[in-house]
Amino acid sequence: MPIVYALVARGKTVLAEFTNTSVTGNFPTVTRVLLSKIPPTDSRMSYIYDNFIFHYITSSTITYLCMSDDTSSHRVPFAFLSKVQETWNQEYGTQGLTAIAFSMNDAFSPLLKGLMDRYNNDPGAIDSVSKVKDQIEGVKSVMVENIEKVLERGEKIELLVDKTDRLNQQAFKFEKQSKRLKNVMWWKKVKMYLMFTFLAAVIIFAISAMACGGIDFHGCKSDKRRLM
After folding, report:
1. What is the pLDDT of residues 103-150, one digit of tens each?
2. Which of 8, 32, 33 is nearest to 18 (CA)?
3. Can you give the residue range of the structural domain that contains 204?
């Protein structure tokens, strides 16, 4: 999953955000620290943190930020952010310059989800839009730094991300239950075979005992002595 989290903020004030349901963690807290370090001037940059990368575009004091895993290229996250910026401007214009925290979250969070799904599931779609292609060219010059460079000396933040893909969990649970059911059915079959074998042995023994005059088989022993 390349992009797992996104937000739109003015300075440290988050106006809207969305977290992919496949992950949980404290990255919203980490982004608050990062937002306090981002200058208000127009810029775009990426910060590496462990196995994740924070990408952002700041334009007219509004910051568009997303977090992706380090397996994705910078092209897709910045194309995503450019589209978020375009959509935001179409929806709200300059309203974000005076809006209070999370005042646009209810309306814009679903749009973030839709864009995130689109760019995660079909990243090739960005190549069909020439305008986005031109914007992506600017990604080549984006600075990439380790996030520790923006922290004050002695300041520490710990990124905790738990990838809890529900489909994978359900698949694992189903597989585990299937194996358990298979083992139960196998043991039932073994027990049934053992029971049939035991019953067959008892029946054969009973018939033999009856034919030989009792459980000590004295009748068969007498016949054997006569033959000898």
Report:
1. 999 999 999 999 999 998 876 656 444 445 545 455 544 555 555 555
2. 8
3. 172-227
Q: What is the pLDDT of residue 25?
A: 81
Cα(140)–Cα(138) distance, rounded to whole angstroms? 5
Number of other CB atoms surrounding residue 148 within 10 Å: 12
Tell me the C-alpha to C-alpha distance, in Å, between residue 213 and each of 169, 203, 208, 220: 65, 15, 9, 7
Domain end marker among 164, 181, 211: 164
Spatial separation of the C-alpha atoms in residues 198 and 193, rounded to whole Å: 9
Of 145, 164, 183, the residue that ends a domain is 164
Q: E-strand spans in 52-122?
A: 52-59, 62-69
pLDDT digits (tens, 9 = 90+) for 143-178: 555 555 555 544 455 544 455 444 455 555 555 666
Q: Which amino acid is at 162?
A: D
Is the Cα torsion angle 139, 16, 33, 11 positive or negative in sign?
positive
Tokens describing residue 226: 């006569």
Question: What is the mean predicted confidence (pLDDT) over 17-45?
Answer: 86
Q: List the structure tokens of 90.
A: 């179409």
CATH of the domain at 16: 3.30.450.50
Q: Long-range contacts for 83-87 (Cβ within 8 Å, ≥24 apart)? A: 83/115, 83/119, 83/132, 84/6, 84/8, 84/112, 84/115, 85/57, 85/59, 87/111, 87/115
Helix/strand/coil percentages in the chain, nearest 5: 55, 20, 25
